[in-house]
Amino acid sequence: MNTPEQQIQAILERNRRVETEKAWELSWFRRLTILGMIYAISVLFLWSIDSHPSLLQALVPAGGYLLSTLSLPWLKKRWIQKRYR
Known about the structure:
By secondary structure, the protein is mostly helical. It has one domain (4-83).
């Protein structure tokens, strides 16, 4: 059986893990990595179907992703305010 101290330690460890995962979700490193992957895959796809200029056209899905990550925190905050008012 867990002692109260062990239970508290388990809660603190869980909180650290949740905070770390949240920091990763909000990090610019993660966003830019996904942005680069979307751009590279889009370029390869557009190049494979012989679409020109594929380097420029690949900016559309990558830009869409970036815009969505910039707008979602604002929308999330507004949703939370309306839902839990």
